[in-house]
């Protein structure tokens, strides 16, 4: 796991044994990139890489590779997300090549939310290949220097390959096996779904450690600070595969009006502190949705700054 | 409301309950509209969607099915199945812009002579208020 | 079987708005079994259309016929003598019926009265569910008789995805997650190892993606 595969900053941070810290940013709903650049500026220097989401929740936005390329221009390392919903294998491979040529070095391979959730529910979905096969596809392109059909690639894309894991989806007993499967398929790092149920995550990580998965792959724990009681309740009830324990909602409510956001940040910081100590956790992925301007503060208070400079 | 209008109503009556109740109403000398044409069926389960539609198609102003109390069907659930068929016909009529109230399902027992007369009067009144079936109006015009 | 639903009456009425003599053709195949286009449904549609026309004060002549199968030239041949006596023909078969009819009788206009939906079966009386996507390369034996191609909303071959919750799919709390069922069945049978091996990208050439399909059986072809 030690030989450098992509040379991305994220890879170097992880391989040098540092506790990684990644952020997230959604591309704009239009061709105006001012707001994107603003958000990237909030993240710059405070995280090791920024996930650029791909039509997240099946709502159309600027293509993730284009927004990732803008991040490269802005001096922020992107983690280019790709979902299986919108592209067949041809489009995937050509986008991987294009992304690499634009200086993108990290990729996160995802199934993608079903289009029924989004703003074009009448769309035809693709799902030519699934996330597991996408991981394997990118690995084949990188390591075998071949397309999926076995033809050679002239200039193979050396991506640092990421995948997602949701320890809170069902069936729980199978989740760690699916993680193992993703690692075997070629995932170099994993970013988990937002964690709120710490007990369940501890249990999950123990299984992952026992299976030796953490020696083969870097696991970044997902954190999303809760901004309000309403957001917590929405996540608990409406978002499939999300587990927000009632005690946490109560704690947030107990903070009192006007103090929910601060309490949410406190909770996130406590989580990060625990992840730093937790066996098998190699970093934190902070998904501060529409809260990019708070990332610096959270990073500071969680002791994540300064970020290591490894060149 | 048209006072000259004498609605034509078809009633599919189960022989175990509604039909017997009609007999009882007769022997009790209870009044109910004479323009209700009763068709005896061995069970309301025998009544199909097409029977109800054909009645409307052929000029009935109203149609109803009268079966046993739910749970008391001689054939276990004929009345429950037919309630669903009645619902289907109501939906079809709505789709065609015809008042779904022209079709109805009732439940009663053989001992309910007065209830039979009441249903007949109620249905007669309802159809009289709705007026002639739109199929009949157009034909007359 | 092929499962279909009848189109709304308004849509069928629009199709025949300027036609006064029609034939409604049922099929004794799949659509009879799924209660959408057999003898009984032909009668119901006929009566419904006549009611609608009578209401408008216009007459409509409707003849009815339900043939053995509309997907077979041998049976389609049976209506040859009379098919052109009508202003239009409404087919209550699956999407195959009106096409076979149109090919056989190019002078006539055939309208579909049903929306053809999926390959499935009745899970209880009056309820049909999808089971097969007709992908052309059956893999159900790898998944203990549960097809992820047809029954996973994303056709995942290495599921379940992160949207699986309490046995249901992320798209709806009424849609079971087939991968949850696959995993549980494998666990019960002590064969979870089957799911640990990577299933490579599927070859979709045998599916619709490979273009319109054809099956030739040399031993039968004349």
3D architecture notes:
The complex is a heterotrimer of chains A (311), B (141) and C (222). The model of chain A has no long low-confidence stretch (mean pLDDT 96). In chain A, α5 (131-144) links the parallel β4 and β5 (160-165). Chain A is α/β, with parallel strands linked by helices. Helices cover 40% and strands 14% of the residues of chain A. The radius of gyration of chain A is 19 Å and the shape is globular. With 141 residues, chain B is an alpha/beta fold. The relative contact order of chain B is 0.24. Chain B has a single domain, classed as Rossmann fold, CATH 3.40.50. Chain B has five helices and four strands; from the N terminus they run βαβαβαβαα. In chain B, α1 crosses α4 (113-130). Chain B starts with 8 loop residues before the first strand and ends with a helix. Helices cover 44% and strands 16% of the residues of chain B. Chain B is globular. In chain B, strands 2-1-3-4 form a four-stranded parallel sheet, sandwiched between helices. Chain C has 222 residues and is an alpha/beta fold. Chain C is built from eight helices and seven strands; from the N terminus they run βαβααβαβαβββααα. In chain C, the strands form two sheets. In chain C, strands 3-2-4-5 form a four-stranded parallel sheet, with helices on both faces. Chain C has a three-stranded antiparallel sheet with strand order 1-6-7. In chain C, β6 (114-124) and β7 (127-132) form a beta hairpin. The longest helix of chain C is centred in the N-terminal third of the chain and has 17 residues, at 39-55. The radius of gyration of chain C is 22 Å and the shape is elongated. The two termini of chain C are 27 Å apart. The relative contact order of chain C is 0.12. Classes of the chains: A alpha/beta (311), B alpha/beta (141), C alpha/beta (222). The interface between A and C is medium-sized, with 37 and 31 residues.
């Amino acid at each position: 796991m030690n030989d450098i595969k992509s040379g991305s900053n994220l890879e170097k941070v992880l391989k040098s044994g540092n506790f990684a810290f990644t952020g997230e940013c959604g591309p704009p709903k239009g061709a105006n990139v001012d707001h994107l650049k603003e958000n990237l500026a909030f993240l710059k220097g405070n995280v090791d890489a920024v996930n650029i989401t791909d039509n997240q929740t099946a709502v159309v936005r600027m293509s993730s590779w284009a927004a990732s390329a803008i991040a490269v221009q802005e001096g922020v390392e992107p983690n280019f997300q790709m979902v299986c919903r919108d592209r067949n294998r041809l489009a995937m491979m050509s986008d991987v090549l294009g992304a690499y040529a634009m200086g993108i070095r990290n990729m996160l391979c995802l199934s993608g939310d079903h289009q029924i959730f989004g703003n074009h529910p009448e769309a035809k979905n693709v799902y030519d290949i699934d996330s597991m096969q996408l991981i394997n596809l990118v690995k084949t392109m990188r390591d075998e220097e071949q397309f999926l059909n076995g033809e050679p690639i002239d200039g193979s894309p050396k991506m640092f390959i990421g995948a997602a894991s949701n320890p809170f989806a069902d069936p729980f007993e199978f989740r760690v096996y699916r993680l193992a499967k993703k690692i075997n398929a070629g995932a170099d790092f994993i970013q988990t779904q937002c964690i709120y149920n710490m007990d369940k995550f501890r249990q999950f990580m123990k299984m992952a450690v026992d299976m030796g998965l953490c020696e083969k792959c870097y696991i970044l724990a997902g954190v999303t600070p809760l901004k309000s009681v309403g957001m917590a309740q929405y996540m608990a009830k409406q978002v499939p595969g999300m587990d927000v324990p009632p005690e946490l909602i109560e704690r947030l409510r107990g903070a009192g009006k006007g103090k929910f956001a601060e309490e949410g940040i406190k909770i996130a910081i406590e989580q990060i502190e625990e992840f730093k100590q937790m066996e098998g956790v190699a970093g934190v992925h902070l998904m501060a949705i529409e809260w990019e301007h708070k990332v610096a503060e959270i990073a500071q208070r969680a002791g994540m700054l300064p970020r290591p400079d490894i060149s | 409301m048209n006072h000259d209008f004498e609605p034509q109503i078809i009633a599919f009556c189960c022989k175990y309950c509604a039909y017997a109740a009609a007999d009882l109403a007769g022997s009790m000398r209870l009044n109910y509209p004479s323009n209700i044409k009763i068709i005896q069926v061995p069970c309301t389960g025998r009544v199909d969607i097409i029977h109800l539609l054909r009645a409307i198609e052929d000029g009935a102003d109203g149609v109803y099915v009268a079966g046993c109390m739910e749970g008391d069907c001689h054939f276990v659930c004929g009345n429950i199945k037919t309630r669903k068929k009645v619902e289907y016909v109501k939906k079809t009529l709505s789709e065609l812009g015809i008042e779904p109230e022209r079709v109805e399902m009732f439940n009663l027992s053989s001992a309910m002579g007065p209830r039979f007369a009441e249903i007949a009067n109620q249905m007669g009144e309802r159809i009289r208020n709705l007026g002639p079936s739109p199929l009949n109006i157009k034909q007359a015009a | 079987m092929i499962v279909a639903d009848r189109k709304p009456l308004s849509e069928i009425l629009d199709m025949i708005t300027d036609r006064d003599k029609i034939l409604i053709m049922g099929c004794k195949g799949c659509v009879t079994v799924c209660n959408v286009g057999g003898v009984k449904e032909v009668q119901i549609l006929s009566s419904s259309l006549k009611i609608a026309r009578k209401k408008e004060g216009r007459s409509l002549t409707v003849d009815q016929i339900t043939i053995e199968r509309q997907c077979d030239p041998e049976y389609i041949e049976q209506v040859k003598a009379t098919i052109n006596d009508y202003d239009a023909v409404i087919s209550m078969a699956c999407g195959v019926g009106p096409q076979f009819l149109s090919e056989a009788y190019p002078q006539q206009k055939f309208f579909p009265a049903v929306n053809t939906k999926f390959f499935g079966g009745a899970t209880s009386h009056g309820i049909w569910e999808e089971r097969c996507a007709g992908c052309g390369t059956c893999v159900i034996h790898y998944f203990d008789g549960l097809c992820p191609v047809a029954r996973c909303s994303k056709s995942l071959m290495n599921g379940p995805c992160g949207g699986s919750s309490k046995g249901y799919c992320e798209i709806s709390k009424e849609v079971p997650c087939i991968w949850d069922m696959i995993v549980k069945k494998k666990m019960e049978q002590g064969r979870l190892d089957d799911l640990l091996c990577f299933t490579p990208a599927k070859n979709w050439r045998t599916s619709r993606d490979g273009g319109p399909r054809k099956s030739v059986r040399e031993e039968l072809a004349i």
